[in-house]
Amino acid sequence: MSKEYTAATFAQVLGVEKRSAYGLLLFLVAAGHAESRGSKRAEGKTTGRGENHYILKATAPDAVAKMIKGAL
After folding, report:
1. Helices marked H in 4-59 — which ranges?
2. What angle do CA 8, 14, 15 make, to 5 degrees?
3. Secondary element (H or E) of residue 63
4. Are 53 and 37 spatial neighbours (Cβ–Cβ below 8 Å)?
5. What is the pTM of this model?
6. Model confidence pLDDT, tens digit, residues 12-30
7. Using CA atoms, how far apart are residues 68 and 45, in angstroms rounded to an integer?
8. Which DSSP string do the residues of 5-19 spell out, in sequence order?
9. Residue 44 CB neighbours (<10 A)
10. Which of 1, 7, 32, 37 is most enclosed, with most CB atoms within 10 A?
């Protein structure tokens, strides 16, 4: 199964700012190459809003590369 990401964890993996990672996640969801798993609170946290979690589909790397090549 694919790994779940929050905007913060995705940003850490990519080495970019959280805002940029969040934008990429939203783009991938809109393009159909990721899906939102909804909001979840961090373990042990009992109050407040949780962070949204996302899963990338196996099609994401090749599809994004194809989109970028098409834009060149």
Report:
1. 7-14, 18-30
2. 85
3. helix 60-71
4. yes
5. 0.80
6. 999 999 999 999 999 999 9
7. 40
8. E-HHHHHHHHTS-HH
9. 5
10. 7
